[in-house]
Specification:
Elements (H helix, E strand, L loop, with lengths): L1 E6 L8 E7 L2 E7 L17 H4 L2 H7 L5 E2 L8 E2 L2 H19 L4 E5 L5 H15 L4 E3 L6 H11 L16 E5 L3 H4 L1 H13 L4 E5 L12 E3 L6 H15 L4 H7 E2 L1 H8 L4 H8 L3 H13 L11 E5 L1 H4 L4 H15 L8 E4 L6 H6 L6 E2 L3 E2 L3 H11 L12 H9 L5 E5 L3 H4 L3 H10 L2 E6 L12 E4 L8 E4 L4 E5 L12 H12 L11 H11 L12 H7 L2 E2 L26 E2 L18 E6 L26 E3 L1 H6 L7 E5 L4 E8 L7 E5 L7 E4 L5 E3 L21 E7 L4 E9 L4 H9 L7 E7 L4 E9 L5 H10 L8 E5 L4 E10 L3 E10 L5 H9 L28 E3 L4 E2 H10 L4 H12 L9 H10 L6
Parallel strand pairs: 6-7, 6-16, 8-9, 8-12, 9-10, 11-22, 12-13, 16-17, 17-18, 23-27, 24-26
Antiparallel strand pairs: 1-2, 2-3, 4-5, 4-18, 14-15, 19-20, 20-21, 23-30, 24-27, 25-26, 25-30, 28-29, 28-32, 31-33, 31-36, 32-33, 34-35, 35-36, 37-38
Helix pairs in contact: 3-20, 4-20, 4-21, 5-14, 8-11, 8-12, 8-14, 17-19, 27-28, 28-29
Length: 926
């Protein structure tokens, strides 16, 4: 077995991993104990990385050869790399020659490596002469970029992970770190144990598991963050809690901000934000003083924030207004203090470093600055870099939908799932004359729109670097060779560039290091100067933080400790930006505020995590969460189907009561795209997951869309005919079978199609309609699930639109086991049939009841419960039963729980939920 040190491809924490491999196979993964980001820890997603790379998964999901679609709507056929790249060069050159360089665009990804990002940026801006290169990081981090630059002068998070160990007050806003950054949240829990006096404030419309750790929870109304921050500053000024000396020595523009917040009185802020004045005063005091009881000896306050601030039509204002608080109180440039933006993707930071956004250039240079453009042109050896701002993500797809952008190149991202306003995005992908998708997997929905599919390498096969949230650069290393004909992303770009402009000398690279060295030189003298860093240092000394200038042996953990900022006068700038309401506030026709967010065990569009049934144990199917009072008012029970409708679209999914959701609010996880949740509009148009609802309205400064909020209405769906099909599948056919089932999803007004299982792989297909569909459709469904076998038991009543089918396996060792079933027209038996199959329980006693409409189980079953611990498959019912016998304090009860069931003792991702269950003190045995 071979061990290879690399980096996790999920969130921006940047955890180090050790990949275990044998020959060409990845066989295991474990946390790297020497990596400073995670010190050996991994979350539930990271711990299963090797399973997503297993041969049985790869054979069914990987794109292994270049594929060309001979015509729109036709199946793609295999082609050669030469033919594929020559075709791409002809089509892009044709669009450029006819319509100009801005007729093409590139949409790339924060999951690319820094070296990949650099060559894409150079291809567009240096070779083609267009700034139309943007990234899905626009959807998650561009407001943080704009906020840092506006106030501090550079896109540079000033804090680091170690600051958790020095903070006296944590202010967490717009971040469910317990789910989005689990390993960092483990470090937060450790810091809290080491410093029991630490105060934690969490501001979030939802009472998330992150809020469970709060000493003070602020359930503010969606979109009111700027008003909250202005109100806190108003109180700080009134009470004398600002740091006048720091303001005088190190900042500018404070008078304008004071004038702006004068009207943000506690009374007004409480009313707008939906908070109490008492809580506002407490939050202001803790933040300003670092929760110190001695105002003369200020403690340290660290802010952690993420998409709740960024994904907003006021994203820049939210970021800047929070940074204002740090500057006004001197809570920056010292251990345990500072505004710390948490990146969502593994290399969103690296993409920002190389200028991988439509308004940026290499090394944090501004496209609008003529001197910066001249510096980059000189470095690249081109006459000039175009000065016209490029189209950002939303603008790029709107332009393609309008016919202005003729050719699109999409790499390592899935806009047909992740972009807002999916109707416009899909129209863009259909109208563009030529669409290239550079991708490792065949499963993302965007692949369905590609004229040309180019197979790329992925985690475990790539070489290069990434930068995490704390400015730490880590090496990504290959443990196994690329499968099939897959090529590295940077190599695909270089090969294309050489064909696009034969004879050009801009792309001489033959290794990722040769690209990185040019990137390193571009940083010389800049705020992110890494001229003292090398691949050799990363190999010998491990991950390093920037800046790390030539002649230094290590980078800086914290920035601005000397109070000098990268601005013209060396002072930080207060940003006096007014509070503005949501782009789409709720109103009488759309009375609910819909927020989106992450699930604990899934990541982004689930092209990787969605291949593992075990990662669906915690949240098995899509749902819209509502407050119990709203459920009662709408006469809804858990599981009832509802239409969730915005001004852009409507989707159908089950409703679910949740204590985390406030009245008049709703929540749907961001991950549910058309691959897992689909249906038909009233006009028969296919609908595309949660982003059929979200708005493309964006922040005017950062151009980041307001994915976090949309105004919606919720109405009970009249879909009386229901269907449930559940089956175990052969490992070597499971994912392919799911793909076949997805081809049937558009036949119903509502469908969810999700995997399940731990040691085995299964699939669940749930649908609903107004009336029973044609029998031929159910025949197709049965055939896909192997229910058309001769030994399957079946029952049908065409008059009532009902059908039942079941298949059992029998063996001398295990007896009869249920392998697959279908309930059409009457799915009431789900309550006992689904656990009978999923638990692989003996089924002989149930045989006669399998086909009886509405039959109940012959023996009483204990409720299965919801999975809480993914690592050890521990359910909430088992946890409650254990807690009923536990005694002592909450910590003692938690310890007893972990000792007896071992839940929360491996990756720790479930610990916040365990704490919530302990606090409930539900002592009724399940």
């Amino acid at each position: 077995m071979t061990d290879t040190r690399s980096t996790c491809p999920y969130c921006g924490v940047g955890c180090g991993v050790i990949i275990e491999s044998e020959g060409t196979r990845i066989t295991g993964v474990r946390g790297d104990p020497d990596h400073p980001a995670n010190v050996g820890r991994l979350c539930s997603k990271g711990q299963t990385l090797h399973l997503t790379a297993a041969d049985s998964v790869a054979r069914q999901t990987r794109l292994l050869h270049p594929m060309q679609r001979p015509a729109r709507g036709a199946a793609p056929v295999r082609t050669s790399w030469d033919e594929a790249l020559n075709l791409a060069a002809r089509r892009f050159n044709g669009a450029i020659a006819t319509h100009g360089p801005d007729a093409v665009g590139f949409y790339i990804s924060g999951q690319l490596l820094t070296e990949d990002y650099y060559v894409f940026n150079k291809l567009a801006k240096g070779l083609i002469g267009t700034n139309n290169v943007d990234t899905n990081s626009r959807l998650c981090m561009s407001s943080a970029v704009a906020g840092y630059k506006l106030t501090l002068g550079a896109d540079a998070p000033p804090a680091c992970y170690d600051d958790l160990n020095h903070a006296d007050c944590l202010f967490i806003v717009g971040s469910n770190a317990a789910f989005a950054h689990p390993v960092l949240f483990r470090r937060l829990e450790d810091a809290r144990r080491a410093n029991p006096d630490m105060k934690v404030i969490v501001a979030d419309p939802r009472r998330t598991d992150t809020a469970g750790i709060a000493d003070l929870y602020l359930p503010l109304q969606p979109g009111t963050d700027v008003m909250l921050f202005h109100g806190l500053l108003h109180i700080m000024l009134w009470e004398g809690w600002t740091d006048a000396a720091y303001i005088e020595r190190h900042t500018s523009g404070f008078d304008a901000l004071k004038a702006l917040v004068r009207e943000c009185t506690p009374e007004r802020v409480a009313q707008v934000c939906g908070l109490t004045e008492e809580d506002l005063f407490t939050a202001a005091r803790w933040f300003a003083t670092g929760a110190s009881t001695d105002p003369q000896a200020r403690g340290a306050t660290l802010s952690l924030y993420c998409q709740g601030l960024n994904q907003s039509s006021s994203g820049t204002a939210k970021n800047a207004s929070l940074i204002n608080l740090h500057l006004a109180t001197g809570q920056i440039g010292k251990p345990g203090a500072g505004p710390f933006s948490l990146t969502g993707q593994p290399n969103a930071m690296g993409g920002r470093e190389v200028g991988g956004l439509a308004n940026l250039l290499s090394a944090h240079r501004d496209l609008a600055n003529p001197a910066h453009r001249a510096e980059v042109a000189a470095l690249w050896g081109v006459q000039s870099v175009p000065d016209k701002p490029g189209l950002t993500a939303v603008e790029l797809f709107e332009a393609a939908a309008d016919g202005a952008v003729k050719a699109l190149w999409i790499a390592c991202t899935n806009p047909a799932q992740s972009m807002p306003d999916q109707r416009t995005v899909r129209r863009a992908l259909q109208r563009a004359e030529f669409v290239v998708v550079q991708e490792a997997f065949t499963t993302p929905a965007t692949c369905d729109f590609a004229d040309l599919l180019l197979p790329a390498t992925t985690w475990g096969e790539k070489e290069g670097t990434v930068t995490n949230s704390e400015r730490r650069i880590s090496r990504v290393r290959a443990a196994v060779p690329p499968p099939g004909e897959a090529r590295h992303d940077w190599r695909i770009v270089v090969d294309f560039a050489r064909r696009l402009r034969p004879g050009n000398t801009l792309f001489p690279y033959d290794t990722p290091e040769s690209i990185w060295l040019e990137h390193r030189e571009s940083t010389r003298g800049r705020d992110l100067d890494i001229t003292g860093l090398s691949y050799a240092m990363l190999e010998q000394q491990g991950p390093q933080q920037w800046p790390l200038r030539e002649g230094l042996s290590e980078g800086k953990a914290r920035l601005y400790e000397d109070g000098v900022f990268p601005t013209a006068d060396g002072r930080a700038r207060f940003a006096a930006l007014p509070y503005k309401p949501l782009a789409e506030p709720r109103e009488s026709r759309y009375p609910f505020s819909l927020t989106t967010g992450r699930l604990r065990d899934q990541w982004h569009g689930m092209s990787r995590t969605g291949t593992l049934g075990r990662l669906f144990g915690h949240v098995a199917e899509p749902a819209v969460q509502l407050n119990a009072r709203d459920m009662e008012r709408l006469a809804l029970a858990d599981g009832d189907l509802v239409h969730v409708t915005s001004k852009r679209g409507s989707i159908v999914l089950p409703a679910q009561a949740s204590e985390q959701i406030a009245p008049a609010q709703a929540f749907i996880a961001m991950h549910w795209g058309a691959e897992y949740l689909s249906g038909l509009s009233s006009s028969g148009e296919p609908l595309a997951g949660v982003n059929a609802l979200t708005t493309s309205a964006y922040c005017p400064s950062s151009k980041q869309p307001e994915l976090k909020h949309a105004a919606v209405k919720v109405l009970k769906a009249d879909l009386p005919w229901t269907l449930l099909a559940v089956a175990w599948l052969p490992d070597d056919r499971a994912l392919a079978t799911q793909a076949e089932l997805r081809a049937l999803m558009g036949e119903f007004p509502f469908v969810s199609c999700v995997p399940f299982g731990r040691e085995r792989t299964g699939v669940l297909f749930r649908a609903a309609a107004h009336d029973a569909p044609a029998p031929a459709l159910l025949d197709r469904l049965e055939a896909v699930l192997g229910l058309d076998a001769p030994d399957a038991q079946r029952y049908a009543d065409r008059r009532l639109g009902q059908r039942r089918c079941a298949r059992l396996s029998r063996s001398p060792e295990r007896g009869a086991r249920l392998e697959a079933f279908l309930l059409a027209g009457d799915a009431r038996a789900e309550a006992w049939l689904k656990p009978l199959l999923q638990d692989e329980a003996p089924a002989e006693a149930y045989a006669r009841r399998l086909l009886m409409p509405g039959a109940s189980a012959p023996v009483e079953q204990a409720p299965r419960g919801k999975q809480v611990c993914t690592c050890l498959n521990v359910s909430d019912s088992a946890i409650r039963t254990c807690l009923a016998r536990a005694d002592g304090s909450d910590e003692e009860r938690l310890a007893q729980l972990q000792t007896q069931l071992r839940c929360g003792t491996q990756c720790g991702s479930c610990v916040p939920e365990l704490r919530r269950l302990v606090r409930e003190r539900d002592t009724t045995p399940a």
